[in-house]
Each structure stands twice: as structure tokens, then as C-alpha cells.
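Morning run. Coffee first, then this:
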Amino acid sequence: MYGGDTTNLPPKTMKEAKKFIQSIKANKFEWCVEFEERLVGQARLSVNEIDNQARYAVGLFDPSIWGHRNYTISPTLYI
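And here it is:
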């Protein structure tokens, strides 16, 4: 969820978390954001096919890493 209210979201079950990661892996324009070898967010590139404009979004879901600069988005995207 980007820009939404995250205060009342229940934690994901292991099954839900695995499904979430698989959905990211299935899209060539989405990536997991890792910090200290754990998933802390998601990055994605959306391309509008009508005007060929792109939007890049990064969601960091773990507030404990906000303000850190040592997270990685992998794999590296070359445009």
C-alpha cells in the first residue's frame, strides 16, 4: 500500500508473505527492497503504454529502517 493508512494492518502470515514475494518476482518491473538480509519494502516501475511515461515507486514498509541509507533494491535496473 502506497500512501495509505498502515496503522491497523495485521501482520502477514508466512503463506501470505510468500505469496507476496512470488507476485513481486513474477513481474519483471517489480523488486524486493532488502535491509540487513530481510524484506522491508517493494519497488516497481509502471509504464503508461499510451504516452510512454514511466513512474517509479518505492514503498518501505518497515518504519524501523526509515532514515537509513543502507538498503538495497535488487536486481539493479539499467534503463
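The mean pLDDT is 80. Good start to the day.
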